[in-house]
């Protein structure tokens, strides 16, 4: 299972506020047919699932602001694709928390 961090930034919008774009992206993630798990943060979204599924989801996320009138979209992606053992967002956090005790 892979974990991706994605940030979608619409450019050329009528306002500096982007929360309505973020809300639309959240709805897209909730309705995704792919078996994914996601967590939104104040600066990006973290999604876990099979890499092929995640890439399809990211493409839809990138395209969404264009349908709302954005003239340009900048999308940043970080991929953590660990194949030596199962990995998840929860497992990664638990590993660090265990070391803090």
Which CATH C-level class is it?
A: Alpha Beta
Helix content: 40-55%
- Overall pLDDT, averaged? 94
Following the backbone from N to C, one meets helices and strands in this order, namely EHEEHEH
| Estimated structural class | alpha+beta
Can you characterise this structure?
- The structure is a single chain.
- The chain is an alpha+beta fold.
- It has one domain: Alpha-Beta Plaits (2-Layer Sandwich), CATH 3.30.70.
- The chain has helices at 19-30, 51-67, 89-100, and strands spanning 2-11, 37-40, 45-49, 72-81.
- The protein has a 4-stranded antiparallel β-sheet with strand order 2-3-1-4, with helices on one face.
- A hairpin with a 4-residue loop joins strand 2 and strand 3 (45-49).
- The model has no long low-confidence stretch (mean pLDDT 94).
Main attributes?
Thiamine_BP, MTH1187/YkoF-like, 101 residues, single chain, elongated, UPF0045_domain, MTH1187 family thiamine-binding protein, 3 helices, Alpha-Beta Plaits, alpha+beta, four-stranded antiparallel β-sheet
């Amino acid at each position: 299972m892979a974990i991706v961090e994605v940030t979608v930034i619409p450019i050329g919008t009528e306002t500096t506020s982007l929360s309505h774009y973020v809300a639309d992206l959240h709805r897209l993630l909730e309705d995704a047919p792919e078996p994914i798990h996601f967590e939104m943060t104040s600066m990006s979204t973290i999604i876990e699932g099979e890499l092929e599924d995640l890439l399809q989801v990211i493409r839809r996320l990138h395209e969404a602001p264009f349908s709302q009138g954005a003239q340009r979209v900048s999308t940043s992606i970080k991929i953590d694709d660990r194949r030596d053992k199962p990995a998840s967002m929860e497992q990664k956090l638990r590993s660090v928390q265990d070391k803090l005790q």
